[in-house]
Amino acid sequence: EVQLVESGGGLVQPGGSLRLSCAASGFTFSSYAMRWYRQAPGKERELVASIGSVGGRTNYADFVKGRFTISRDNAKNTVYLQMSSLKPEDTAVYYCYALGRRLWGQGTQVTVSS
Question: Are the C-beta atoms of 15 and 85 separated by less than 8 Å?
């Protein structure tokens, strides 16, 4: 089955860290650039970070630069989002996306609150 499955979300205090994972199956993961998006309640989905298929070239939204790191392990068919210095405004459902396949995961909730 062609799918993306996110994990690693949860409740964290401001200033804390989380690592999200997105496991791919059913397609040649290493051939596709990957993205993380997020959607907060009442807001549009926004791009957070992206990574190339090979070489790992990365790009970040200004609001996460210096705090989030996207990476991938093609041997494990997994893309990661390491999030640190989390803020309440980072609260959202986080989705991974396979560019070129137009494939979304189901999302994982991240809540930043004291």
Answer: yes
